Amino acid sequence: MEYQVKNADGRLGILMPGLGAVATTLIAGVESIKKGFSQPVGSLTQMGRIRLGKRTDERFPLIKEFVPLTDLENIVFGGWDVYADNVFEAATTAKVLEPMLLHAVRPELERIVPMKAVFDKAYARNLDGNHVKEGADKMELAEALMEDIRQFKETNGCDRLVMVWCGSTEIYIEESGVHQSIEAFEAGLRSNDPNIAPSMIYAYAAIKSGVPFANGAPNLTVDIPAIVELAKEHGIAISGKDFKTGQTLMKTILAPGLHARALGVKGWFSSNILGNRDGYVLDAPENFKTKEVSKLSVLDEIFRPESNPELYGDMYHKVRINYYPPHGDNKESWDNIDIFGWLGYQMQIKINFLCRDSILAAPLVLDLALFTDLAQRAGMSGIQEWLSFYYKSPQTAEGLAPEHDIFKQLMKLQNTLRHMMGEDLITHLGLDYYQDLVEAL
Ligand SMILES: NC(=O)c1ccc[n+]([C@@H]2O[C@H](COP(=O)([O-])OP(=O)(O)OC[C@H]3O[C@@H](n4cnc5c(N)ncnc54)[C@H](O)[C@@H]3O)[C@@H](O)[C@H]2O)c1
């Protein structure tokens, strides 16, 4: 299949439900980068390169020079939150970035004021904001969001929009009847079905408005048949879920290495402490459960204990998150990994990652927004599995196991870009080099 990728002309609006730590760190970062104060470190779209052609061709362009992406100068930010604080105030509360940096971009941040949120306290009981829309039913709330989207696009002169969920993690729910088809979902919106989460209302409004959607939290959101069907029907790109940062990033870097060397794993105990608002929301067990399910799936998919029972059949995997206010956004994680090697001899690996949650997440939001917009311009609709690279719990077509190995995810992402632009895919087989040598003799 050949793609006709449209150019990234004009302005791109990035709309985020949830203007908290991650979203404000992204916005302040982009404004600071635009002024030349900082570098977009951690962003593949801005700093990553891609190999094209044969190794001997020496072609390694920057990704942003290879595929048509929106320039940072042409991005406009907007969003919704249950708190009315503008982005400067919210970023100050989040305490991720230094006051000096925030003051350097203060006017740009103060201009961005959240729109009233669609919110249901039953989905995040630790939040008490009241900057919230009212409506007779959930359909009316969805329509109010569609009106916000339309007005934002018009007021800001945007040519295209993308939506990235940066809102809090919602309570754990499983797919139910109301999620199974567009008809059931729309009837549920009208009857205020409690199984329709606020994030699903945003996703519905986005897709109905022609806006692609990426989900940064572990909520179901777009990972239900009704929304997948809606996205296909409207030709809209969707992806999810849960930004892959911190501990899970480390896991999907290390676990493929152990697996590649056929080393066994007996146990993997992961604990985290963090003290930001995300941590506070996750302190409620029903919200933690959503995150836990997302974090736990990773190792099973990489090690496949059922096909490797001698090496991974008895693996004990535990994940803990504890709210610890003194650390703020500076999450600390510990991993104790009990592995075994030749003849079953045991060894241990310890990881103590002192990370900064939002510093790791902000560039992912930027990349997801730019790549999702690219996918939309390339006519790629429905689930964008090639963006698995960014997620803890990648959304796939029904019946397909997600790929968690970060190196395979990167290869898939890069090959998708090559494919879009009509370049040869790279398999790393490399035999052709030797064939050439033989023929040259
Ligand atoms: N920072 C990371 O490394 C990371 C990694 C993976 C996933 N995430 C997820 O990203 C999301 C954002 O993280 P954060 O650290 O910015 O959290 P945060 O608590 O600082 O920000 C979330 C914001 O969303 C708002 N919100 C909640 N429900 C809303 C709704 N229905 N509509 C509009 N706004 C709503 C909250 O008021 C809050 O301001 C969380 O779900 C988190 O679990 C973060």
UniProtKB/TrEMBL annotation:
Q: Which segments constitute the Myo-inositol-1-phosphate synthase GAPDH-like domain?
A: 246-358
GO MF term set: inositol-3-phosphate synthase activity
Q: Which Gene3D superfamilies match?
A: Dihydrodipicolinate Reductase, domain 2, NAD(P)-binding Rossmann-like Domain
SUPFAM superfamilies for the chain = Glyceraldehyde-3-phosphate dehydrogenase-like, C-terminal domain, NAD(P)-binding Rossmann-fold domains
Alphabetized InterPro entries for the sequence? Myo-inos-1-P_Synthase, Myo-inos-1-P_Synthase_GAPDH, NAD(P)-bd_dom_sf
Pfam families recorded for this chain?
Inos-1-P_synth (PF01658), NAD_binding_5 (PF07994)
* Superkingdom to which the source organism belongs: Bacteria
Q: Does the keyword Transmembrane helix apply?
A: yes
Q: Name one GO biological process term.
A: inositol biosynthetic process
- Membrane-spanning parts: 12-30
Protein name as it appears in the record = Inositol-3-phosphate synthase
Family membership, please give it: Belongs to the myo-inositol 1-phosphate synthase family.
Transmembrane helix is among the record's keywords: yes
Coiled-coil stretches? none
Annotated keywords? Membrane, Transmembrane, Transmembrane helix
